[in-house]
Prior knowledge:
Blueprint: H1 23-26, H2 28-35, H3 40-69, E1 79-87, E2 90-96, E3 107-111, E4 116-127, E5 132-142, E6 150-154, E7 169-175, E8 178-185, E9 197-202, H4 216-221, E10 226-229, H5 252-264, E11 269-275, H6 277-288, E12 295-301, H7 307-317, H8 322-333, H9 338-341, E13 365-370, H10 379-387, E14 392-397, H11 405-408, H12 410-425
Parallel strand pairs: 9-10, 9-11, 11-12, 12-13, 13-14
Antiparallel strand pairs: 1-2, 1-6, 2-5, 3-4, 3-6, 4-5, 7-8, 8-10
Amino acid sequence: MASSLRFPSDTLRIPPAQGEGTPERDGTAAIVRGSAKWAAAGAIGGGAAAALLAAGSSALALYFARRVITPASERPQDQEILAVIREGNTQQVILAATPDATLEGVYGLFFDNGRGHARIGRIVSYSPAERTVLREVEAVYSGDLSAARRGSWSGTIHPDPATLGVQAEDVLIEVDGGTAPAWLVRAAPVPGVESDVWAIMVHGRGASRQEGLRVLETAGKLGMSSLLISYRNDGLAPSAADGRYGLGSTEWRDVEAAITYALGQGAREVVLFGWSMGGAICLQTADLSRHRQVIRALVLDAPVISWVNVLAHHAELNRIPTSVGRYGQVMLGHRLGRRLTGLAAPVNFKAMDWISRAVELRTPTLILHSVDDEYVPYGPSANLAEKNPEMVTFEPFDTARHTKEWNVDPERWERLVAAWLRQQLAPRTNPGQSGPGGVPGRPEA
């Protein structure tokens, strides 16, 4: 098994080793040394061979664990760009036919180590034999796409609100360690719609506040002002003291700070939108925040419902023995593991397991999740809805892979979300009701 683990933008895939640097540089040697403490029992009880095996397993488990919680310094450029064709004012791009690049829809392509950003449109032609796909280039926001040879595929298609023709305010939210930048897009008045319910957009792991730009129009049509936030370790907000992701167990405090800001600006209630790990963060906010009573609803796209499930899935994908994968989870969740993982506090996986806690979720929740999601399996999302149908509505998508449900079928995504939210935002006849009759409705597909 390769010892190099990297996680693409808001994913947890662990590909084979490529260009991670020397063990000393990427920390592997230090991990192996530190893991000897965990392997001591094996050394005493099983002799030298057992000790070596235990040390190797411990090192792999620890490296796996650390990569889960360590923010990446840059996007992986795993999409090959073969050529750019210009015809007048239009451009087309020939790409290697990856699973992402052959999906219909509109996507973002980051290149030049994130300095370049293009919006990639429809498929013009696809050659399975040559393993290439020709697509339209709808816009190049920055950089020289014709000079790029590799890039990073993304569901993020806009760099900022201005490219959508939307006016936004640059605001700062007080969080632990300083201030976190956010975009505030104030909604235009909508006749018959209350304007004091705000949308707060919570991006996923390794992504940015740009992720929420796709759904600004939907929120605006519902009369909701939108706050697109940054949070600890995302490159904009202050880093956490330990420089590690809490997988939702710490980040929710930054969302709580965003709610505090919104309430101070005139909001009465909020709807939290979360993508992938952002979904886990939203669930923790609804559970733990002092503002949980003003959270009207959750809209979650490909959310992490159970980290145990996600980590087990990635261990299996990468042929990591089950016992080693579990060992990595123990390191993250046990107080003694903090000295090796670098976490300031262990991750409470039980508190973030919404399968076992299904009946405790009392905030109306809409989940949109593709059944072919390769990074966060959809099963827990469907399971949560099955266990708590009163509060959770599950809408499956096909062929969208991870967090690209909107990209593949924006019309359906927007229709489902708008219909469901209209029910949730309807005037409540009694306190505590979450919609007409007190039961969240199911929008038409």
